[in-house]
Amino acid sequence: MIFESHAHYDDAAFDxxxxxxxxxCRQQGIETIINVSASLDSIKSTLALAEKYPFIYGAAxxxxxxxxxxxxETFAWLREQCRHPKIAAVGEIGLDYYWDKEKHExxxxxxxxxxxxxxxxxxxxxxxxxxxxxxxNAWPIQVSREGVATAVVSIPxxxxxxxxxxxxRQDLEDTAKLLAAFVESLGRGDKLC
Length: 193
Ligand SMILES: [Zn+2]
Description:
Structural class: alpha/beta
Largest sheet: 5 strands, parallel
CATH superfamily: Metal-dependent hydrolases
Strand content: 15-25%
Low-confidence stretches: 134-171, 186-191
CATH class: Alpha Beta
Shape: globular
Mean pLDDT: 74
Helix content: 25-40%
Oligomer: single chain
CATH architecture: Alpha-Beta Barrel
Number of strands: 8
Distance between the termini: 37 Å
Radius of gyration: 16 Å
Strand order of the largest sheet: 1-2-3-4-5
Number of helices: 5
Number of domains: 1
Bound molecules: zinc ion
CATH topology: TIM Barrel
């Protein structure tokens, strides 16, 4: 079984041939897709996809570059969307010091709030974390709901001396600690929450 844990098929880039592409995915043996949202708008388009296609589930969350759109009102709306039966994770959430669109304190605040939300709702999180210098140095952590492998950490090219670690965690706190440890290992020593 192929489980695609991180897709953005609601993106406008797929407007021309989305239907055809998704049908091909099924034919090629992809049984389940998590379409991951990044903004308040893409939570809506993710839900539309999940409601249309039985094999598509969604992650609802606000990407660090978009956290300027969060306030108590929109956060309450996000919490409601997370209760939708086809929302399987909170994401993508994290820190983006590469594009650096939002202040780090704001990114950290809403990252923590969204992790707390996931904990409150007993949902996995889907992370996007970009460190702050050139190239491909992102290290996404993917967290799948059903479970055996709950987090896969891929280490950016720049840090290839660090062993790639595959972790099996049920516990969001462990994942948060892992993340904090990694951020610290990059020399920033930031405290997250
Ligand atoms: Zn993504």
